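ARCHIVE CARD
Drawer: 12
Card no.: 0347
Subject: one protein chain, sequence and derived structure
Cross-reference: see card 0346
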Amino acid sequence: MSAARARSRRTLLAIASALGVTTALGLVAGAGASSAATLPAPAHVVVVVLENHAYSQIIGSSGAPYINSLRTGGANLTQFYGETHPSQPNYYAMFSGKTQGITDDSCVKIGFSSAANLGSELIAAGKTWASYNEGLPSQGSTVCSNSSNKYAQKHNPWFGFSNVPTSTAYTFAQFPTDYTKLPKVSFVVPNLCNDMHDCSVSTGDTWLKNKLGAYATWAKSNNSLLIVTFDEDNRLSGNRIATVVYGAHVTPGSSSGTTYNHYNLLRTLEDMAGLTAHAGNAASAADITGIWS
């Protein structure tokens, strides 16, 4: 590489760093290399997982005004799909790139798998990870369910992995009010009512606005992202589900018609966090592109 080209490369890398931008394949890999699609490098990403509704039941629905406001102010992934049915295998897929042999919603043995996953990768890389689980009786609790709080462990795949400390599973009441204290990546799982499983779309939409609306607003000007997705559809729409992305570096009103699934989301989360490891099927999945400013 010539001295002039090396200086040019260093300048581009400095600009990218200042803008909080990274790439999945490396920026300016060398002479003659094609440009890789850029991804943001957010300080915080919060992923919220809702339940059992098809794309058409959410996007454009009068029952989901807040989610649709995130769509119009952020990005809409119009061809996003779950992997299977019922719920639990999809959660394992989005967290570890594989369903890990899970085929039903039965309570799993704690730490039954040592497979790579988003939490273990973040921890190994010295980055922060947490889940915030509504209805969880206490931090790190491994109970299967809590009917009084409508809690269900089947929506919390982190408990299935021996390489993810149970202490990183927090109650939703522990979600920081000072958003600068959020981990690099976190998942939020509402209870069985507020995730739309047992209650209406409007119930879940209102919960999302009330509980995470302030974070979404803050994220836009603080290099952070909110991602709202679903585990699966209602079994009537080919498992097509709503997924919206809102916050810094997202082009408002953008959409992507590329076919994506939870493996693409996992790969994107890994690459935005600067991880070099990729769990399961995320290793061969493409990043989500076409929505970033």
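Annotation on reverse: The chain has two domains: 1-36, 41-284. The longest strand covers residues 44-50.
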